[in-house]
């Protein structure tokens, strides 16, 4: 899949301003964001990009106290690996789980190791949310055994692979809307020797089956989580658990309120570098 990179300059630059712009751009189908060298970088599939729509969103900042300008760059699919390799750093979570690529060497051993070689890039902000979701999963080590798990918006399938290694019920289910991500997830599952323990489908939350899952993982973004919360709740068994991330700390209350309306009770929250993750339990 070909992508468009939107590089946005803010004058004067601040992290708060960049995050504000990022939140508003989240209304458009951008897949990832990162802040690098005082610029906001946003990535969107080429066929979903509309420059008029981008201009409408950015025009809302005309009186925001800073100036905006942007540049566009076309990134063909074959370049994504190089982009990702240049920016991705291995993640070691609580000394118990390492997420690394095949080219990362000399890392400390941990109980769980997930090796990924994705076919597309993700913004660096996703590393924090992945870390938070892994942290929540590691806290469920005993209760995850034999449970039916769904990794929704699986991307490279880090979470689904980890769940399989933690002895969740086979197969762990995974869904992503991007066919490239689905292919990547399947390849990564094989590289981690759990290819026969993970089933990956291409689609969205409409593929979820009512009352089927004990644990549902959704590391997506605030707007999609809010939109599909009722579907998540219906897909969980009584006392099933929903783990969500992909949003900022200040958005956590909004998600908690929405979840409560669908019978989901907040039982744990964690945060890292302004990102948050929440764990809910479906009331029996």
Would you write up a description of this structure?
There is one protein chain. With 284 residues, this protein is of the alpha/beta class. The chain folds into two domains: 3-75, Alpha-Beta Plaits; 125-282, Vaccinia Virus protein VP39 (Rossmann fold, 3-Layer(aba) Sandwich). Helix content is 32%, strand content 32%. It has nine helices and 14 strands. The protein has a seven-stranded mixed β-sheet with strand order 10-9-8-11-12-14-13, sandwiched between helices. Strands 2-3-1-4 form a four-stranded antiparallel β-sheet, covered by helices on one side. The protein has a three-stranded mixed β-sheet with strand order 5-6-7, with helices on one face. A hairpin with a 2-residue loop joins strand 13 and strand 14 (275-282). Helix 4 (125-138) runs parallel beside helix 6 and helix 8 (222-235) runs parallel beside helix 9. The longest helix has 14 residues, at 125-138. The chain starts with a strand and ends with a strand. The model is unreliable at 121-125 (pLDDT under 50).
Strand order across the biggest sheet? 10-9-8-11-12-14-13
Q: How large, in whole angstroms, is the Cα Rg? A: 19 Å
Percent of residues in helices comes to 25-40%
Query: SSE order in H/E notation?
Result: EHEEHEHEEEHHEHEHEEHEHEE
Largest sheet: 7 strands, mixed
Q: What is the terminal separation in angstroms?
A: 42 Å
Query: How many domains make up the coordinates?
Result: 2
Q: Looking at CATH, which topology of the largest domain would you report? A: Rossmann fold
- For the record, what CATH class of the largest domain applies? Alpha Beta
Percent in strands: 25-35%
């Amino acid at each position: 899949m070909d992508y468009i990179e939107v590089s946005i300059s803010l004058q004067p630059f601040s992290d708060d301003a960049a995050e504000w712009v990022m939140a508003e751009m989240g209304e458009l189908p951008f897949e990832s964001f990162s802040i690098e060298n005082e610029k906001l970088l946003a990535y969107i599939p080429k066929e979903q990009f509309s420059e008029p729509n981008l201009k409408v969103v950015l025009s809302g900042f005309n009186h925001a106290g800073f100036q905006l300008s942007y540049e566009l760059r076309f990134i063909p699919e074959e370049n994504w690996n190089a982009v990702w390799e240049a920016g991705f750093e291995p993640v070691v979570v609580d000394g118990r789980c390492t997420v690394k690529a095949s080219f990362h060497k000399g890392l400390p051993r941990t109980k769980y190791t997930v090796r990924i070689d994705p076919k597309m890039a993700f913004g660096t902000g996703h590393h924090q949310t992945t870390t938070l979701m892994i942290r929540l999963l590691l806290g469920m080590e005993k209760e995850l055994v034999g449970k039916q798990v769904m990794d929704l918006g699986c991307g490279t399938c880090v979470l689904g692979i980890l769940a399989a290694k933690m002895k969740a019920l086979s197969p762990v289910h995974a869904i992503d809307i991007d066919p490239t991500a689905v292919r990547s997830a399947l390849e990564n599952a094989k590289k981690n020797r759990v290819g026969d323990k993970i089933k990956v489908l291409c689609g969205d939350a409409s593929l979820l089956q009512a009352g089927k899952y004990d644990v549902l993982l959704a590391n997506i973004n605030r707007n999609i989580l809010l939109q599909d919360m009722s579907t998540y709740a219906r897909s969980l068994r009584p006392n099933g658990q929903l783990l969500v991330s992909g949003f900022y700390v200040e958005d956590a209350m909004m998600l908690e309120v929405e979840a409560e309306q669908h019978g989901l009770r907040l039982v744990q929250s964690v945060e890292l570098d302004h990102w948050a993750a929440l764990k809910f339990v479906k009331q029996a």
